[in-house]
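Subject: Sanity check before I submit

Could someone independently write out the structure tokens for this chain? I want to compare against mine line by line before I put it in a report. The sequence has 281 residues.
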Amino acid sequence: MTHPVPIRRDTALTLATGGLPVLPLSADKRPFGNCPDCQGNRCGGRPNMKTPGPCQCPRPCHAWAAATTDPNVLSSRPWEAAWRRAGAVAYHPGAAGVTVVDLDDADAITWARATLPVTRTVATTRGEHWIYQGAMQSANGVRPGVDIKSSMSYARWLGAGTGIVAPLPPAVRALVSKETSTVRPGRVTVPAPAGGGPCPHRSPAYLERGIAMAEQRITDAPSAIHTTVYRTFLAVLSAHGRCGCLTDAHIARLFTAAQAKGESPRHCTDAWSNARTALGM
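---
Independent answer below. Compare away.
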């Protein structure tokens, strides 16, 4: 079944205007692959296109990485086919600074009412979404009938819901990990380039300014985080990767910025390796 473009796209544009990063979903709740490399999950993402693989596709990418507040992207030609086939609008909770506790059945709802603070509630097909202010790591099956959707995840938009959004409680964070609050940087597993070329830098300030600008570019990205991280890594390596000035500490700063926007350590490592390969390093 197809839907006229304006129905879903107009909803998405309205939500994006309010600061909610959105993306189209198919009727079976899966994101679309919006470039040839991602069609049929050929880029190597996780099953059902729910997590992007280490592709180097142009905007828009797919899954949660495609969520955007940019009206030009939402109305662009590459997205038109997706909107025609879309069965729903989804959003990236983590990028919006919220966490969705997805309660999939009556037993899960009963547990939540007895355990969690009252917050905004949205009715779903089989249960409810409980929405809290604050982002954290996402996880499925944290207890029977309960999923956590926040960073590096997406949730269907099913309406504004009822009630006031409460702060994310420790009880929800503890469902994923007693030691995890928000997404923390993973361990850097790639070494800095060995160098060997001529150094064009007249002072350490030049390199510091370049790294700081790269961090800011990633931090400020409103959408297409997967692609932004790769292109930023590519730019840093192109400018600083051959002279030996780039250190593991600099790489760690870039990885930290990327993971704060929802990239996993594996995706950071893949993006770094792909950028080095593209530059023949």
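---
OP: Matches mine. For the report I'm noting this point. Residues 9 and 198 are 51 Å apart (CA to CA).
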